[in-house]
Amino acid sequence: MGSEKRKFNDHMIKETEKIPQHVLDDIRGDEIRMYRKEQAQRDMYNDPDLNWSGLR
């Protein structure tokens, strides 16, 4: 790993430590909800009964 990348990673770690844990938990929860919604959309798109226009 280059020295610039190491400096950047160290900087990001310090910045992340400033963020309260409940904020990080909220962000993670939002990501999980978004992923589940996208997965439901993909499942509906690939389901021959729910996708009336047919499989693509």
Describe this protein's structure:
The protein is mainly alpha-helical and 56 residues long. It has a domain at 19-56. It is 75% helix and 0% strand. The longest helix is centred in the middle third of the chain and has 26 residues, at 21-46.
Could you give the count of β-strands?
Answer: 0
Q: How would a textbook summarize the main sheet?
A: none
Question: What is the gyration radius calculated from CA atoms?
Answer: 20 Å
Mean pLDDT: 83
User: Helical region count?
Assistant: 2
Distance between the termini: 43 Å
Helix proportion range: over 70%
Beta percentage is: under 5%
How do the helices and strands follow one another from N- to C-terminus? HH
Structural class: mainly alpha
Please name the defining characteristics of this protein.
56 residues; mainly alpha; 2 helices; 75% helix; 0% strand
